[in-house]
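ARCHIVE CARD
CATEGORY: sequence design from structure
SOURCE FIELD: tokenized fold
FIELD CONTENT:
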């Protein structure tokens, strides 16, 4: 029975990894995608955040769908939709089409994450959970290690479209295995008569409005824009109506009372810190690396992937630490190592090469692995089985929503600070506009002066990017203090 459950879990885990790879794979090829899709630095963030936004929409309902359809049927539908969306991404010829299909990738693939998490606690006994968590963490985070390298390799030697098309043969093989081996048929047919349509509508509208508000706010001058004001108003009204509906209806689509469990609430807060410290650099590092060194996607992928390698190597170690020393020690270790790694990335310079990034990336990988596994263990270990599906949906909603929001906010501040620092640098160095040089521009010097001016502005833009990244990393460093304080409120696991 144990071997059968392990096989089922590994099949579902494989689908989850395929979806996670789709999020990470584009990171090392942003510059290529900008050129091919005619997108700006600000617009390119949508290629990553579109899938995260769509995941945020489907994840809250995944627990309800798993109960209605069964885990088997939901997994097969999710994987099928994900593969069709990957095909659409592979043949997209403009930014709008790409964003649509990236959203569909996230929408269908997003349900596989709660399924994977829920089945850890459904298929296995509590004593086996640390070992299974180690397997899930080690294999699951391989997407962070392999995604950027795989994306860089496919872009460099084949074509950027293969970042999406490679999913098809692998996904079909996983679908075949799931069809013949996954037998999780249990479902609650009567849920279809109790479906909370208003709750679904209010939550979907509020999440979409929130993410558009955050993503577009800086570009449209926040509340000076009628569009941003409208988005914020829609979000506020919808979220109030959603909470009112869920607390008063007999059959809510989401059981929000799960957050009254102290351990679950603390675990979700730890998960938010994990998302901030993990996803922000995954999005921003490729942008500044391409400007600092003008290096190709493979080299960028290697630098990004060292963090994933740190996570893979530390997975089994975290499992043993969790079993022998407890979850509080795991969280403390995670906060300390993540904080050090994040701080080291707040002091980078234009001279940094792979060796300079190696230590900070590995530390962040090891630290975030401790933080993630600890937060998940806190959330689920004391919950009864009948609450696992809903709790898994809420935990992963917290993860994906935090990732999408943190990417959007960091993108906004990155763009804003980049312009501010660029103006400061050029104001201090723009001696070419002085009256002396204006009078000194003889014809024979004109070409050299223009070339020097171009180089000066390129230098200023590069330095502005690096300073902006350092500032974001510095502020991120302090967030790790939050879980370190909250662990004193964690209740012991049930025997």
């Amino acid at each position: 029975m144990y071997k059968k459950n392990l096989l089922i879990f590994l099949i579902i885990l494989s689908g989850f990894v395929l979806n996670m790879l789709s999020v990470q794979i584009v990171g090392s090829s942003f510059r290529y995608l900008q050129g091919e899709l005619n997108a700006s630095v600000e617009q390119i963030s949508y290629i990553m955040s579109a899938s995260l936004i769509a995941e945020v929409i489907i994840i809250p309902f995944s627990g309800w769908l798993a109960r209605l359809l069964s885990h088997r049927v939901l997994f097969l539908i999710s994987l099928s939709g994900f593969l069709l969306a990957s095909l659409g991404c592979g043949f997209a010829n403009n930014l709008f089409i790409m964003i649509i299909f990236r959203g569909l990738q996230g929408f269908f693939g997003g349900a596989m994450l709660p399924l994977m998490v829920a089945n850890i606690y459904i298929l296995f006994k509590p004593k086996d959970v640390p070992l299974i968590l180690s397997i899930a963490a080690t294999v699951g985070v391989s997407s962070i290690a392999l995604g950027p390298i795989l994306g860089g390799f496919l872009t460099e030697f084949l074509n950027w479209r293969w970042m999406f098309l490679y999913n098809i043969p692998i996904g079909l093989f996983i679908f075949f295995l799931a069809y013949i081996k996954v037998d999780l048929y249990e479902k609650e047919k009567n849920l279809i008569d109790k479906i909370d349509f208003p709750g679904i509508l209010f939550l979907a509208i509020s999440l979409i409005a929130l993410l558009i508000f955050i993503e577009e706010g800086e570009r449209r001058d926040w509340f000076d824009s009628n569009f941003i004001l409208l988005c914020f108003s829609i979000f506020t009204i919808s979220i109030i109506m959603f909470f009112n509906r869920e607390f008063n209806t007999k059959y809510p689509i989401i059981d929000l009372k799960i957050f009254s469990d102290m351990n679950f609430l603390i675990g979700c807060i730890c998960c938010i810190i994990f998302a901030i410290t993990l996803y922000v650099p995954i999005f921003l590092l490729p942008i500044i690396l391409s400007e600092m060194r003008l290096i190709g996607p493979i080299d960028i992928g290697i630098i990004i992937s060292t963090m994933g390698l740190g996570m893979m190597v530390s997975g089994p170690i975290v499992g043993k630490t969790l079993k022998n020393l407890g979850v509080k020690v795991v969280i403390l270790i995670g906060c300390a190592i993540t904080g050090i790694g994040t701080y080291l990335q707040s002091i980078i310079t234009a001279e940094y090469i792979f060796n300079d990034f190696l230590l900070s990336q590995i530390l962040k990988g090891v630290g975030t692995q401790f933080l993630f596994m600890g937060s998940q263990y806190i959330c689920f270990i004391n919950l009864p089985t009948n609450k696992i599906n809903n709790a898994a949906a809420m935990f992963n909603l917290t993860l994906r929503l935090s990732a999408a929001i943190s990417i959007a906010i960091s993108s906004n501040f990155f763009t804003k600070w980049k312009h501010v620092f660029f103006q400061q640098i050029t104001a201090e160095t723009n001696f070419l506009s002085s009256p002396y040089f204006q009078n000194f521009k003889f014809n024979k010097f004109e070409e050299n002066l223009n070339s020097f001016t171009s180089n000066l502005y390129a230098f200023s833009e590069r330095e502005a990017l690096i300073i902006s990244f350092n500032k974001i990393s510095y502020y991120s460093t302090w967030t790790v203090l939050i879980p370190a304080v909250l662990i004193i409120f964690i209740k012991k696991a049930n025997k």
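CARD ANNOTATION: Confidence is low (pLDDT under 50) at residues 440-444. Residues 306 and 315 are 14 Å apart (CA to CA).
SHELF: design records, drawer C
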